[in-house]
Amino acid sequence: MSRPTLPAPDAAWLDSLSHAALEAAAAERVEAAWRLAREVYPGLPRPALWFDLRGQSAGQAHFGRGGLRLNRVLLAENRRAFFVEIIPHEMAHWLVRHLDEGHRVRPHGHEWRTVMRDLYGLAPRVTHGFDTRRASPAPYRYTCDCREHHLGARRHARIAAGQRYYCRHCRQWLRPVAEASV
Ligand SMILES: [Zn+2]
Ligand SMILES: [Zn+2]
C-alpha cells in the first residue's frame, strides 16, 4: 500500500469550520482530487458538486447530472473521513467511468480499486461505518433480491418482534443490511 497522495487535513482545523466553510473546504478537496485524476486522464471533465445527497449514502458520482453529490449531514459529522476517503472514493468513480467509454466495468471493480490504491494511496473500501441516524428519516436498511429498502423505526421494531415484510417487486422477504454503502 502506498501512502495517501492527498495530505490529510488537520482534524482540529476541520472541526473548527462552520458548515459553510466546511462545504467550501470540501469543494477545494474535490478540486485537488480532480487535479490528481487529471494526471491519469488530462481530458477528465471537472465535476459539479452538490451537497444534496440524503439518507445512508455518504457520496455518489452522478453521471447524468455531471458531478458528485455529498451527504451534508454525514459530512458535518464525519469531516476527516470525508476528506481522506469519501471524496477520493467518488472521484475514483468519476475517473473510471470517464475512462470506460463502453460503461462495462463494475462500480467497485478492478479499475476502481486500482485508482484508489495507485492514484490516491487508499484502501479500496466500499462501505463506511458512519452513524446515519440523523442523516436519514428511515434509517433501517433492508434488502431483498432486487433492491434496497429503507424502513422507519416502527416497521423495524415490528420486524424485531417477529413480523415479516416482503418486497412487492421480487416477493422475497426483507432482511437487514449490516453496513451503509459509499
Ligand atoms: Zn425485491
Ligand atoms: Zn463507491
From TrEMBL:
Pfam families: SprT-like (PF10263). It comes from the Bacteria. Residues 24-177 form the SprT-like domain. This is SprT-like domain-containing protein. It comes from Modicisalibacter tunisiensis. The lineage of its organism: Bacteria, Pseudomonadati, Pseudomonadota, Gammaproteobacteria, Oceanospirillales.
